Amino acid sequence: MTGERNSKEILEDMKDHILLDNGSTLSLFTNPELVVNIRKADDVLQLATNTGVKFNNEKAEVPNFGEVWYDKDAIANIIGFADLLSKSNRITYDSAKEDAFIVHLPDGKLKLKRTAEGLYAFKPHKGFIEDNLQQKPAGEQYWIDSINAANDEEDKMKDAKGCKCLYDILC
Fold first, then answer.
1. pLDDT tens digit string along 39-80?
2. Strand 52-62 relative to strand 36-49: parallel, antiparallel, unpaired?
């Protein structure tokens, strides 16, 4: 099975990506390298999953995005579609042009392309937090600094195999 990745490798790789989830009503991150200000929340999240109900009481900040739930034991960093839409100008998808969701921001576009596992995601570059913590001039916001680096990284995701394996784990 040379060239194929096992489920553990796929799951570890997913923690370095930000997934767009149109079935989620919230945003939840697991990678502490993508957030700042991890703290106890004033409220408790009751998250219903395929494996049961999980309770969470931690939140964090994604620079230039806002507050998200934080769970160090989650399997992926998830941006809820509705949450992202409320913080952008619009989100489009036109499969005749490209298999990607395009997030239209005031000063650029963010592409979330389909991974080999069939999920829509982008991978922030290593300096994601540092770049987004810098003071931005008015009009510059979100992850525009990460877009070019993320688009370069997207090509690396294309060789990922084991879609069925990931599907079996998630579902």
1. 999 999 988 877 788 898 999 998 778 899 999 988 889 999
2. antiparallel
Instruction: Label residues 120-153 b or e (16+ Cβ within 10 Å = b).
Output: bbbbbbeebbebbeeebeeeebbbbbbbebbbeb
DSSP β-ladder status, 77-80 and 18-21: parallel
Low-confidence ranges of the chain (pLDDT < 50): 1-2, 135, 137-142, 144-171
Does this model's pTM top 0.85? My answer is no
